[in-house]
Amino acid sequence: MPEDSEQSSSLNEWHERSFFLEVKPRTDLASLFVDCPPKISAENKENADIDLVRVGSHSVEIGLPTNLVANLPAIGGTIPDEVQHFSAKIADISLSPASVCTPKWADSNRLFMCKVHAEAENIPLVPKNFHRLARDMCNADYLEDFCEMLVEPTTPPPQGGTLSKGGSSKRNRKSASQSPEKRDKTVHITCRKCGMKLVQEGKKLALEYLPTDDWLQTSASGDFFCRDSCGAKCDPNRHGGGHSSKGVESTKVNPDWVPTENKTLISHLTLTVHKQSLNEKSYELNGQIVICAGCRSEIGQPVKNYPDLLALHHAIVSTAIGNKDFIEFRFNDYSMFLAQLILISCENQSSVKLVIRSLDKTPYLLIWLLESYVVLATGMLHEKAPNENEEAVRPFPAIKMLYKVFDAATAASDPRANGEDASVGLIDVPFGCCLQMTEALLKSSHCLPPACRSVGQFYVGFLKIANSI
Protein backbone atom coordinates (compact mmCIF):
# COMPACT_ATOMS: atom_id res chain seq x y z
CA MET A 1 0.00 0.00 0.00
CA PRO A 2 1.35 3.43 -0.83
CA GLU A 3 2.53 5.63 1.98
CA ASP A 4 1.59 9.27 2.39
CA SER A 5 3.70 11.41 0.11
CA GLU A 6 3.90 14.37 2.47
CA GLN A 7 4.40 14.47 6.19
CA SER A 8 2.03 17.43 6.49
CA SER A 9 -0.80 15.42 4.90
CA SER A 10 -0.41 12.38 7.16
CA LEU A 11 -2.77 11.73 10.02
CA ASN A 12 -1.61 12.40 13.56
CA GLU A 13 -2.89 10.34 16.46
CA TRP A 14 -4.38 12.45 19.27
CA HIS A 15 -1.67 13.31 21.79
CA GLU A 16 -0.79 16.02 24.25
CA ARG A 17 -1.44 19.47 22.75
CA SER A 18 -3.17 18.10 19.67
CA PHE A 19 -5.81 20.09 17.83
CA PHE A 20 -8.66 19.15 15.53
CA LEU A 21 -10.61 21.46 13.21
CA GLU A 22 -13.80 20.42 11.41
CA VAL A 23 -15.38 22.63 8.75
CA LYS A 24 -18.76 21.76 7.24
CA PRO A 25 -19.84 23.59 4.08
CA ARG A 26 -23.46 23.70 5.28
CA THR A 27 -22.69 25.50 8.57
CA ASP A 28 -21.38 28.98 9.33
CA LEU A 29 -19.13 27.98 12.22
CA ALA A 30 -16.39 25.37 12.37
CA SER A 31 -15.60 23.28 15.46
CA LEU A 32 -12.14 23.59 17.01
CA PHE A 33 -10.79 21.24 19.69
CA VAL A 34 -7.48 21.81 21.50
CA ASP A 35 -5.84 19.60 24.11
CA CYS A 36 -4.69 21.76 27.05
CA PRO A 37 -2.73 19.59 29.51
CA PRO A 38 -2.97 20.84 33.11
CA LYS A 39 0.21 22.05 34.76
CA ILE A 40 1.20 20.30 37.96
CA SER A 41 2.25 22.97 40.44
CA ALA A 42 2.65 23.07 44.21
CA GLU A 43 1.61 26.70 44.26
CA ASN A 44 -1.96 27.85 44.75
CA LYS A 45 -4.13 28.86 41.83
CA GLU A 46 -3.58 32.58 42.39
CA ASN A 47 0.16 32.23 41.81
CA ALA A 48 0.01 29.53 39.13
CA ASP A 49 1.19 30.25 35.59
CA ILE A 50 -1.33 31.84 33.27
CA ASP A 51 -2.29 29.69 30.26
CA LEU A 52 -4.13 30.98 27.24
CA VAL A 53 -5.67 29.53 24.07
CA ARG A 54 -5.47 31.94 21.14
CA VAL A 55 -7.01 31.55 17.69
CA GLY A 56 -5.33 33.45 14.88
CA SER A 57 -6.31 33.80 11.25
CA HIS A 58 -3.95 30.94 10.34
CA SER A 59 -2.84 29.57 13.68
CA VAL A 60 -3.80 28.01 17.00
CA GLU A 61 -1.68 28.80 20.06
CA ILE A 62 -1.37 27.80 23.71
CA GLY A 63 0.55 29.86 26.25
CA LEU A 64 1.43 33.48 26.79
CA PRO A 65 2.60 35.35 23.69
CA THR A 66 5.96 37.12 23.96
CA ASN A 67 4.53 40.64 23.84
CA LEU A 68 2.10 39.90 26.68
CA VAL A 69 4.83 38.41 28.87
CA ALA A 70 6.91 41.58 28.49
CA ASN A 71 3.95 43.75 29.59
CA LEU A 72 3.02 41.71 32.69
CA PRO A 73 4.95 43.96 35.15
CA ALA A 74 3.19 47.03 33.79
CA ILE A 75 -0.21 45.60 34.70
CA GLY A 76 0.86 44.38 38.13
CA GLY A 77 1.77 40.83 37.19
CA THR A 78 4.96 38.88 37.53
CA ILE A 79 6.91 37.19 34.78
CA PRO A 80 6.73 33.39 35.22
CA ASP A 81 9.97 31.52 35.79
CA GLU A 82 9.27 29.35 32.76
CA VAL A 83 7.36 30.72 29.80
CA GLN A 84 6.20 28.16 27.22
CA HIS A 85 4.43 28.92 23.99
CA PHE A 86 3.04 26.25 21.64
CA SER A 87 1.56 26.92 18.23
CA ALA A 88 0.52 25.35 14.94
CA LYS A 89 -0.01 26.98 11.57
CA ILE A 90 -2.98 26.08 9.39
CA ALA A 91 -2.75 26.54 5.63
CA ASP A 92 -5.48 27.04 3.01
CA ILE A 93 -8.14 28.04 5.58
CA SER A 94 -8.71 31.46 7.16
CA LEU A 95 -10.13 31.63 10.69
CA SER A 96 -11.88 34.71 12.04
CA PRO A 97 -10.63 35.34 15.61
CA ALA A 98 -13.43 37.84 16.24
CA SER A 99 -16.04 35.13 15.61
CA VAL A 100 -14.83 32.77 18.37
CA CYS A 101 -17.81 31.80 20.51
CA THR A 102 -19.15 29.18 22.93
CA PRO A 103 -15.78 28.34 24.50
CA LYS A 104 -16.03 25.46 26.95
CA TRP A 105 -14.34 22.35 28.29
CA ALA A 106 -15.69 19.44 26.26
CA ASP A 107 -14.61 16.91 28.88
CA SER A 108 -14.58 19.11 32.04
CA ASN A 109 -10.82 18.65 32.27
CA ARG A 110 -8.41 19.49 29.45
CA LEU A 111 -10.22 19.39 26.11
CA PHE A 112 -10.97 22.97 25.06
CA MET A 113 -13.66 23.43 22.44
CA CYS A 114 -15.01 26.49 20.65
CA LYS A 115 -16.79 27.56 17.48
CA VAL A 116 -15.13 29.83 14.93
CA HIS A 117 -15.95 31.07 11.45
CA ALA A 118 -13.68 29.47 8.83
CA GLU A 119 -13.38 30.00 5.10
CA ALA A 120 -11.29 28.22 2.52
CA GLU A 121 -8.88 30.43 0.64
CA ASN A 122 -9.17 30.82 -3.14
CA ILE A 123 -12.06 28.35 -3.40
CA PRO A 124 -15.51 28.28 -1.80
CA LEU A 125 -16.55 25.21 0.18
CA VAL A 126 -19.56 23.83 -1.67
CA PRO A 127 -21.67 20.98 -0.24
CA LYS A 128 -21.23 17.80 -2.26
CA ASN A 129 -23.55 14.82 -2.09
CA PHE A 130 -22.46 11.21 -2.41
CA HIS A 131 -23.46 11.02 -6.07
CA ARG A 132 -21.27 13.96 -7.03
CA LEU A 133 -18.30 12.71 -5.00
CA ALA A 134 -18.60 9.24 -6.53
CA ARG A 135 -18.79 10.74 -10.01
CA ASP A 136 -15.75 12.97 -9.40
CA MET A 137 -13.64 10.16 -7.95
CA CYS A 138 -14.65 7.70 -10.69
CA ASN A 139 -13.39 9.81 -13.56
CA ALA A 140 -12.40 7.47 -16.38
CA ASP A 141 -9.58 9.83 -17.39
CA TYR A 142 -7.42 8.35 -14.63
CA LEU A 143 -7.95 4.85 -16.01
CA GLU A 144 -7.16 6.04 -19.52
CA ASP A 145 -3.98 7.78 -18.35
CA PHE A 146 -2.80 4.63 -16.61
CA CYS A 147 -3.46 2.50 -19.70
CA GLU A 148 -1.62 5.01 -21.86
CA MET A 149 1.58 4.23 -19.98
CA LEU A 150 1.72 1.09 -22.15
CA VAL A 151 1.39 3.03 -25.41
CA GLU A 152 4.49 3.35 -27.55
CA PRO A 153 5.78 6.94 -27.75
CA THR A 154 4.75 8.79 -30.88
CA THR A 155 6.36 11.80 -32.47
CA PRO A 156 4.45 14.91 -31.43
CA PRO A 157 2.99 16.91 -34.32
CA PRO A 158 4.67 20.18 -35.31
CA GLN A 159 3.49 23.23 -33.40
CA GLY A 160 0.29 24.55 -34.91
CA GLY A 161 -0.28 21.33 -36.87
CA THR A 162 -2.95 18.68 -36.47
CA LEU A 163 -2.76 15.42 -34.59
CA SER A 164 -2.61 12.16 -36.44
CA LYS A 165 -5.61 9.88 -36.27
CA GLY A 166 -5.84 8.07 -32.95
CA GLY A 167 -3.41 10.45 -31.24
CA SER A 168 -4.02 13.01 -28.53
CA SER A 169 -2.02 15.96 -27.34
CA LYS A 170 -2.01 14.63 -23.76
CA ARG A 171 -0.75 11.24 -24.89
CA ASN A 172 1.98 12.76 -27.03
CA ARG A 173 3.15 15.03 -24.21
CA LYS A 174 3.39 12.06 -21.85
CA SER A 175 5.14 9.86 -24.38
CA ALA A 176 7.65 12.54 -25.30
CA SER A 177 8.66 12.91 -21.67
CA GLN A 178 9.64 9.24 -21.33
CA SER A 179 12.12 7.38 -23.48
CA PRO A 180 10.95 3.93 -24.71
CA GLU A 181 14.32 2.47 -23.78
CA LYS A 182 13.94 3.54 -20.15
CA ARG A 183 10.29 2.65 -19.68
CA ASP A 184 9.12 -0.83 -18.70
CA LYS A 185 5.88 -1.45 -20.63
CA THR A 186 5.03 -4.76 -19.00
CA VAL A 187 1.84 -5.31 -16.98
CA HIS A 188 2.73 -6.93 -13.65
CA ILE A 189 -0.07 -8.56 -11.63
CA THR A 190 0.99 -9.72 -8.17
CA CYS A 191 -0.51 -10.53 -4.78
CA ARG A 192 0.10 -7.64 -2.38
CA LYS A 193 0.41 -9.93 0.62
CA CYS A 194 2.96 -12.51 -0.54
CA GLY A 195 4.23 -11.12 -3.84
CA MET A 196 3.04 -14.11 -5.87
CA LYS A 197 3.28 -13.33 -9.60
CA LEU A 198 -0.08 -14.16 -11.14
CA VAL A 199 0.75 -13.59 -14.81
CA GLN A 200 2.41 -16.32 -16.84
CA GLU A 201 6.17 -15.88 -17.18
CA GLY A 202 7.02 -13.83 -20.25
CA LYS A 203 3.38 -12.98 -20.94
CA LYS A 204 2.81 -9.58 -22.58
CA LEU A 205 -0.63 -8.18 -21.85
CA ALA A 206 -2.45 -5.27 -23.41
CA LEU A 207 -4.30 -3.07 -20.93
CA GLU A 208 -7.59 -1.29 -21.56
CA TYR A 209 -10.24 0.04 -19.20
CA LEU A 210 -13.92 -0.35 -18.38
CA PRO A 211 -15.95 2.74 -17.40
CA THR A 212 -17.47 0.96 -14.37
CA ASP A 213 -16.69 -2.17 -12.38
CA ASP A 214 -20.02 -3.81 -13.21
CA TRP A 215 -19.94 -2.94 -16.90
CA LEU A 216 -19.98 -6.56 -18.07
CA GLN A 217 -23.10 -7.30 -16.02
CA THR A 218 -25.15 -4.11 -16.32
CA SER A 219 -24.12 -2.17 -19.42
CA ALA A 220 -27.04 -1.24 -21.66
CA SER A 221 -24.75 0.01 -24.43
CA GLY A 222 -25.67 -0.98 -27.96
CA ASP A 223 -22.00 -1.73 -28.54
CA PHE A 224 -22.21 -4.44 -25.92
CA PHE A 225 -25.39 -6.41 -26.69
CA CYS A 226 -27.46 -5.39 -29.66
CA ARG A 227 -30.29 -7.60 -28.47
CA ASP A 228 -30.37 -5.82 -25.08
CA SER A 229 -30.58 -2.29 -26.42
CA CYS A 230 -33.09 -3.23 -29.10
CA GLY A 231 -35.32 -5.46 -27.01
CA ALA A 232 -34.41 -8.51 -29.15
CA LYS A 233 -36.77 -7.25 -31.87
CA CYS A 234 -34.80 -4.76 -33.89
CA ASP A 235 -36.36 -3.14 -36.94
CA PRO A 236 -33.50 -2.56 -39.43
CA ASN A 237 -35.35 0.35 -41.04
CA ARG A 238 -35.76 2.10 -37.69
CA HIS A 239 -31.98 2.23 -37.32
CA GLY A 240 -31.22 3.13 -40.87
CA GLY A 241 -30.31 -0.40 -41.83
CA GLY A 242 -27.50 -0.49 -39.34
CA HIS A 243 -28.49 -3.90 -37.93
CA SER A 244 -28.90 -7.18 -39.69
CA SER A 245 -31.17 -9.95 -38.51
CA LYS A 246 -28.12 -12.08 -37.93
CA GLY A 247 -26.62 -9.45 -35.65
CA VAL A 248 -29.85 -9.02 -33.76
CA GLU A 249 -30.30 -12.69 -33.05
CA SER A 250 -26.68 -13.13 -32.05
CA THR A 251 -25.76 -13.11 -28.38
CA LYS A 252 -22.09 -12.67 -29.16
CA VAL A 253 -20.36 -10.07 -27.04
CA ASN A 254 -18.45 -7.23 -28.63
CA PRO A 255 -14.81 -8.30 -28.18
CA ASP A 256 -13.75 -4.73 -27.35
CA TRP A 257 -15.37 -5.07 -23.93
CA VAL A 258 -14.15 -8.52 -22.94
CA PRO A 259 -10.68 -9.59 -21.75
CA THR A 260 -8.82 -12.14 -23.81
CA GLU A 261 -5.73 -14.25 -23.25
CA ASN A 262 -3.61 -11.28 -24.32
CA LYS A 263 -5.71 -8.40 -23.02
CA THR A 264 -6.91 -7.40 -19.56
CA LEU A 265 -9.36 -4.68 -18.53
CA ILE A 266 -8.92 -2.40 -15.55
CA SER A 267 -11.66 -0.50 -13.70
CA HIS A 268 -11.79 1.58 -10.53
CA LEU A 269 -11.92 -1.30 -8.04
CA THR A 270 -11.05 -4.46 -9.95
CA LEU A 271 -8.93 -5.90 -12.72
CA THR A 272 -10.79 -8.28 -15.04
CA VAL A 273 -8.55 -10.95 -16.56
CA HIS A 274 -8.93 -14.10 -18.62
CA LYS A 275 -7.92 -17.33 -16.91
CA GLN A 276 -5.51 -18.12 -19.75
CA SER A 277 -3.57 -14.94 -18.93
CA LEU A 278 -2.68 -16.19 -15.46
CA ASN A 279 -0.30 -18.83 -14.25
CA GLU A 280 -2.61 -21.70 -13.33
CA LYS A 281 -0.38 -22.55 -10.35
CA SER A 282 -0.64 -19.05 -8.88
CA TYR A 283 -4.31 -19.17 -7.92
CA GLU A 284 -7.08 -21.56 -6.93
CA LEU A 285 -10.85 -21.46 -7.26
CA ASN A 286 -12.78 -22.27 -4.10
CA GLY A 287 -16.37 -22.14 -5.28
CA GLN A 288 -17.00 -18.49 -6.14
CA ILE A 289 -13.79 -17.22 -4.52
CA VAL A 290 -10.39 -16.79 -6.16
CA ILE A 291 -7.58 -17.60 -3.70
CA CYS A 292 -3.87 -16.83 -3.98
CA ALA A 293 -1.93 -20.09 -4.04
CA GLY A 294 0.96 -18.51 -2.16
CA CYS A 295 -0.71 -17.07 0.97
CA ARG A 296 -4.28 -18.44 0.67
CA SER A 297 -5.71 -14.91 0.65
CA GLU A 298 -8.98 -14.04 -1.05
CA ILE A 299 -8.08 -12.00 -4.14
CA GLY A 300 -11.25 -11.89 -6.25
CA GLN A 301 -14.25 -13.61 -7.78
CA PRO A 302 -15.29 -15.15 -11.11
CA VAL A 303 -17.28 -12.74 -13.26
CA LYS A 304 -20.97 -13.59 -13.36
CA ASN A 305 -22.05 -15.21 -16.65
CA TYR A 306 -18.41 -15.35 -17.83
CA PRO A 307 -16.82 -18.61 -16.60
CA ASP A 308 -13.42 -17.78 -18.14
CA LEU A 309 -13.08 -14.32 -16.55
CA LEU A 310 -11.88 -13.37 -13.06
CA ALA A 311 -12.32 -10.02 -11.29
CA LEU A 312 -9.30 -9.38 -9.04
CA HIS A 313 -9.63 -6.67 -6.38
CA HIS A 314 -7.10 -3.83 -6.34
CA ALA A 315 -6.96 -3.91 -2.53
CA ILE A 316 -5.29 -7.34 -2.61
CA VAL A 317 -3.85 -7.58 -6.12
CA SER A 318 -1.30 -5.08 -7.41
CA THR A 319 -1.59 -4.05 -11.05
CA ALA A 320 1.56 -2.25 -12.11
CA ILE A 321 3.12 -1.01 -15.31
CA GLY A 322 6.82 -1.30 -14.73
CA ASN A 323 7.20 -0.31 -11.09
CA LYS A 324 4.17 2.02 -11.01
CA ASP A 325 1.26 0.49 -9.10
CA PHE A 326 -2.25 1.58 -10.10
CA ILE A 327 -3.33 2.71 -6.62
CA GLU A 328 -0.06 4.59 -6.22
CA PHE A 329 -0.61 6.17 -9.65
CA ARG A 330 -4.23 7.08 -8.93
CA PHE A 331 -3.89 8.07 -5.25
CA ASN A 332 -1.02 8.95 -2.94
CA ASP A 333 -2.95 7.90 0.15
CA TYR A 334 -4.52 4.46 0.48
CA SER A 335 -7.47 5.79 2.48
CA MET A 336 -8.60 7.61 -0.67
CA PHE A 337 -8.98 4.28 -2.45
CA LEU A 338 -11.08 3.00 0.46
CA ALA A 339 -13.18 6.19 0.32
CA GLN A 340 -13.76 5.57 -3.38
CA LEU A 341 -14.85 2.01 -2.58
CA ILE A 342 -17.39 3.31 -0.05
CA LEU A 343 -18.75 6.01 -2.38
CA ILE A 344 -19.11 3.63 -5.33
CA SER A 345 -20.89 1.10 -3.09
CA CYS A 346 -23.27 3.75 -1.71
CA GLU A 347 -24.09 4.84 -5.24
CA ASN A 348 -24.66 1.27 -6.47
CA GLN A 349 -26.69 0.24 -3.41
CA SER A 350 -28.61 3.57 -3.15
CA SER A 351 -27.96 3.56 0.58
CA VAL A 352 -25.76 5.41 3.07
CA LYS A 353 -25.61 2.31 5.29
CA LEU A 354 -23.35 -0.54 4.22
CA VAL A 355 -22.25 -3.86 5.64
CA ILE A 356 -18.75 -4.83 4.51
CA ARG A 357 -18.48 -8.62 4.10
CA SER A 358 -15.70 -10.93 3.01
CA LEU A 359 -16.21 -13.02 -0.11
CA ASP A 360 -17.49 -15.92 2.01
CA LYS A 361 -20.37 -13.63 3.17
CA THR A 362 -19.00 -13.11 6.71
CA PRO A 363 -19.90 -9.57 7.95
CA TYR A 364 -17.08 -7.54 9.49
CA LEU A 365 -18.07 -3.89 9.43
CA LEU A 366 -21.19 -1.73 9.44
CA ILE A 367 -20.74 1.77 8.00
CA TRP A 368 -23.24 4.62 8.22
CA LEU A 369 -22.19 7.74 6.33
CA LEU A 370 -22.83 10.95 8.25
CA GLU A 371 -21.29 13.69 6.15
CA SER A 372 -20.57 13.36 2.46
CA TYR A 373 -18.10 16.24 2.48
CA VAL A 374 -16.25 17.82 5.39
CA VAL A 375 -12.88 19.55 5.64
CA LEU A 376 -10.66 18.44 8.51
CA ALA A 377 -7.32 19.55 9.92
CA THR A 378 -5.49 17.62 12.60
CA GLY A 379 -2.04 18.18 14.03
CA MET A 380 0.15 19.01 17.01
CA LEU A 381 1.03 22.30 18.68
CA HIS A 382 4.82 22.59 18.93
CA GLU A 383 7.11 24.84 20.93
CA LYS A 384 8.83 26.90 18.28
CA ALA A 385 12.45 27.86 18.71
CA PRO A 386 13.61 31.39 17.70
CA ASN A 387 13.90 31.86 13.92
CA GLU A 388 12.46 28.38 13.32
CA ASN A 389 10.23 27.94 10.29
CA GLU A 390 7.04 26.18 11.29
CA GLU A 391 5.49 23.69 8.88
CA ALA A 392 1.83 24.38 8.21
CA VAL A 393 -0.87 21.77 8.67
CA ARG A 394 -2.87 21.32 5.47
CA PRO A 395 -6.61 20.65 5.79
CA PHE A 396 -8.08 17.90 3.65
CA PRO A 397 -11.58 16.93 2.49
CA ALA A 398 -13.02 13.70 3.85
CA ILE A 399 -16.18 11.65 4.24
CA LYS A 400 -17.28 11.19 7.84
CA MET A 401 -19.07 8.10 9.08
CA LEU A 402 -20.23 6.01 12.00
CA TYR A 403 -18.99 2.43 12.02
CA LYS A 404 -19.36 -0.73 14.04
CA VAL A 405 -16.96 -3.68 14.02
CA PHE A 406 -18.68 -7.07 14.17
CA ASP A 407 -17.48 -10.12 16.03
CA ALA A 408 -19.14 -13.54 15.86
CA ALA A 409 -21.68 -12.71 18.57
CA THR A 410 -22.74 -9.27 17.32
CA ALA A 411 -22.87 -10.45 13.71
CA ALA A 412 -25.31 -13.20 14.68
CA SER A 413 -27.57 -10.92 16.72
CA ASP A 414 -27.58 -7.72 14.63
CA PRO A 415 -30.26 -7.82 11.89
CA ARG A 416 -28.23 -5.38 9.81
CA ALA A 417 -25.35 -7.87 9.57
CA ASN A 418 -27.34 -10.76 8.14
CA GLY A 419 -29.43 -8.95 5.51
CA GLU A 420 -32.66 -8.58 7.49
CA ASP A 421 -32.58 -4.77 7.27
CA ALA A 422 -33.56 -3.75 3.74
CA SER A 423 -32.15 -0.24 4.21
CA VAL A 424 -28.59 -1.57 4.53
CA GLY A 425 -26.57 -2.37 1.42
CA LEU A 426 -24.30 -5.43 1.33
CA ILE A 427 -20.92 -5.34 -0.40
CA ASP A 428 -18.54 -8.27 -0.68
CA VAL A 429 -14.79 -7.64 -0.84
CA PRO A 430 -11.75 -9.83 -0.09
CA PHE A 431 -11.08 -10.48 3.59
CA GLY A 432 -7.85 -8.47 3.42
CA CYS A 433 -9.81 -5.43 2.26
CA CYS A 434 -12.16 -5.81 5.27
CA LEU A 435 -9.13 -5.68 7.56
CA GLN A 436 -7.67 -2.67 5.73
CA MET A 437 -10.96 -0.79 6.00
CA THR A 438 -11.25 -1.56 9.72
CA GLU A 439 -7.66 -0.52 10.36
CA ALA A 440 -8.03 2.75 8.43
CA LEU A 441 -11.20 3.71 10.31
CA LEU A 442 -9.72 2.85 13.71
CA LYS A 443 -6.67 4.97 12.92
CA SER A 444 -8.89 7.88 11.94
CA SER A 445 -10.83 7.55 15.20
CA HIS A 446 -7.57 7.91 17.13
CA CYS A 447 -7.02 11.26 15.39
CA LEU A 448 -10.24 12.60 16.93
CA PRO A 449 -10.51 14.07 20.43
CA PRO A 450 -11.41 11.30 22.92
CA ALA A 451 -14.80 12.87 23.64
CA CYS A 452 -15.71 12.73 19.92
CA ARG A 453 -14.76 9.15 19.07
CA SER A 454 -18.05 7.37 19.70
CA VAL A 455 -21.80 7.87 19.50
CA GLY A 456 -23.77 5.18 21.31
CA GLN A 457 -22.71 1.77 19.99
CA PHE A 458 -20.87 3.30 17.02
CA TYR A 459 -17.37 4.67 16.59
CA VAL A 460 -16.80 7.86 14.59
CA GLY A 461 -14.27 7.79 11.76
CA PHE A 462 -13.41 9.38 8.45
CA LEU A 463 -11.62 8.65 5.17
CA LYS A 464 -9.72 11.20 3.12
CA ILE A 465 -10.88 11.88 -0.43
CA ALA A 466 -8.00 14.25 -1.30
CA ASN A 467 -4.80 15.52 0.25
CA SER A 468 -5.82 19.17 0.13
CA ILE A 469 -8.84 21.32 -0.60
Automatic annotation (TrEMBL):
<protein>
    <recommendedName>
        <fullName>E3 ubiquitin-protein ligase E3D</fullName>
        <ecNumber>2.3.2.26</ecNumber>
    </recommendedName>
</protein>
<dbReference type="GO" id="GO:0005829">
    <property type="term" value="C:cytosol"/>
</dbReference>
<dbReference type="GO" id="GO:0000151">
    <property type="term" value="C:ubiquitin ligase complex"/>
</dbReference>
<feature type="region of interest" description="Disordered">
    <location>
        <begin position="153"/>
        <end position="186"/>
    </location>
</feature>
<dbReference type="GO" id="GO:0031624">
    <property type="term" value="F:ubiquitin conjugating enzyme binding"/>
</dbReference>
<dbReference type="GO" id="GO:0005634">
    <property type="term" value="C:nucleus"/>
</dbReference>
<dbReference type="GO" id="GO:0061630">
    <property type="term" value="F:ubiquitin protein ligase activity"/>
</dbReference>
<dbReference type="GO" id="GO:0043161">
    <property type="term" value="P:proteasome-mediated ubiquitin-dependent protein catabolic process"/>
</dbReference>
<comment type="function">
    <text>E3 ubiquitin-protein ligase which accepts ubiquitin from specific E2 ubiquitin-conjugating enzymes, and transfers it to substrates, generally promoting their degradation by the proteasome. Independently of its E3 ubiquitin-protein ligase activity, acts as an inhibitor of CPSF3 endonuclease activity by blocking CPSF3 active site.</text>
</comment>
<comment type="subunit">
    <text>Interacts with UBE2C/UbcH10 (E2 ubiquitin-conjugating enzyme). In vitro, interacts with cyclin-B.</text>
</comment>
<dbReference type="GO" id="GO:0006513">
    <property type="term" value="P:protein monoubiquitination"/>
</dbReference>
<dbReference type="GO" id="GO:0030332">
    <property type="term" value="F:cyclin binding"/>
</dbReference>
<dbReference type="InterPro" id="IPR019193">
    <property type="entry name" value="UBQ-conj_enz_E2-bd_prot"/>
</dbReference>
<dbReference type="GO" id="GO:0000209">
    <property type="term" value="P:protein polyubiquitination"/>
</dbReference>
<dbReference type="GO" id="GO:0051865">
    <property type="term" value="P:protein autoubiquitination"/>
</dbReference>
<dbReference type="Pfam" id="PF09814">
    <property type="entry name" value="HECT_2"/>
</dbReference>
